[in-house]
Structure formats: structure tokens, C-alpha cells
Known about the structure:
Radius of gyration: 16 Å
Low-confidence stretches: none
Structural class: alpha+beta
CATH class: Alpha Beta
CATH topology: Thiol Ester Dehydrase, Chain A
CATH superfamily: Hotdog Thioesterase
CATH architecture: Roll
Order of helices and strands: EHHEEEEEEEH
Mean pLDDT: 94
Number of domains: 1
Helix content: 10-25%
Number of strands: 8
Number of helices: 3
Distance between the termini: 18 Å
Strand content: 35-45%
Strand order of the largest sheet: 1-4-5-6-3
Amino acid sequence: MAGPHVRSETRRIVMSEVDVSQIHFTTLFAWMDRGLCEWLADVGHPFTRLMAESVGIPIVDSRCRFLHRILLDDLITLETRVSGVGTTSFRSRHRFLRDGVLVAEGELVHVCIERADRRPVPVPGWLREAAAPE
């Protein structure tokens, strides 16, 4: 695949994702994980393939910034892209939009490792190619 890949998916906020006032903060972290899993599958490297190739991509840092309340039945679009590619690490970046308005944004920092000994390895070429420029 040539060039940066951005994945977009719209979902409804359901009862299991909210507390009494608004979305529970952990929901967006789960959505970011899901967004990256789907992004990887879109570019031809789902987690099962990564595991077969002995590549691990553990998260070493995570953050999310909430800009507006997210409520039950809101339709939220998650945009996921990979960028910030370094020697052995990369960032998955996630934007959450309601009706085109940014309501939250988050980032996960991943380090590429050899699963057998957990030693850092270079970011694979296919991921570097599919990532968005910084």
C-alpha cells in the first residue's frame, strides 16, 4: 500500500459506555485500541499476522483530551492514523468527532519489539509506508 492511510468509523454511544452524566473515560481508550486494530487490518497486517511474524507493538504511553461532553446516543466518528514514526516506535493518533466537531483526541505510543525476547526492533517498512507524515 502506498501513502498514508486514515481510517474512519462512526459509532453510536450505547448505555454500557456511559455513567450517569456522560461517556465513561475508559470508553475512548477502548475505541483507540479498536481503531488501531482496524487500521492494521486495513493495511494488510492484522494482529494475527503480526503475532505470526513475532512482532509486538506494546503501548508505552497513552493520553486522551476531552474537549466536549459525549452523551448517550451521540454519533461519534473515530478517525485513526499512524504517524510520528521513529526508529523503533510510532504513534497511533485518534480524533473523535460529533457532527464534524472535534470532541476528543487521543494518542497511543507503541514500541516495536521482537516478541520472543521483547527487545526493540525497527518499525517495519510496511508500517512506515502506510503512516501519515508528521
